[in-house]
Amino acid sequence: MRNQQDYLNKAALYDLLADYYKYTHPSMHIHYYQKHLKYINFALKAQQREMNLSNQPSYVRVLHAVPDAPSVDVYLNANRVLRDVAFKDISDYLTLPAGKYHIDIYPAGTGVNTLISKKVNIEPGKVYTLAAVGTTKKLQLLPFIDEPAVPSGEAKIKFIHLSPDAPAVDIGVKGGDTVFSDISFKQASEYLNLTPMSVNLEARIAGTKNKVLDIPNVKLNANQAYTIVALGFADGEPELEALLLKG
To answer: This protein's superkingdom (predicted)?
Structure first.
């Protein structure tokens, strides 16, 4: 969708053309001046949309996906907002005004020696999952955009690969067609709209039929978005598994 500046640029162009024909070709002058007014009107409407959007709250949840990290406390601008978040835990969505935030993640109950310290920019009207990923030797906080809106009567699903030692994978129906192809560590698929169903899925090494993880009994209800997250170690403990999250 074009923004206010795009429309203002168009309006300025048509204003120049209207001036060019003002005395030599009155009908062309009127034609381009009407276009100038049209795009001025579009710019005003775009400005109103952008102002409305800037006032919309944002929603942020935190996922602990670091298999060898302890439980953690999460601080937002030096205020603790989540306590004792264990591996595989995901918080409820926090409602936040748009803006820049400093996030610190500490071992639970300590408040010293951050595991992760990161500045994040939260845009208005967006829904985020912030995932702590990697291993304790190399930790990151990654933002993933959630899109909870679903066409009426449908379901939709995406996949996020958060296992630090697993290869790139395809996600497919058990023994059948591929749903998501070649998703590497820290990558997310796009959402896929589906008819509500229950289905058995599996993760396979990308481009092969070699299964690395069963994802059984995935129930997709109408009017709901879902995210499958692969986490844990492919070779070690805690072992590789899949979480089915709403959103």
So the answer is: Bacteria
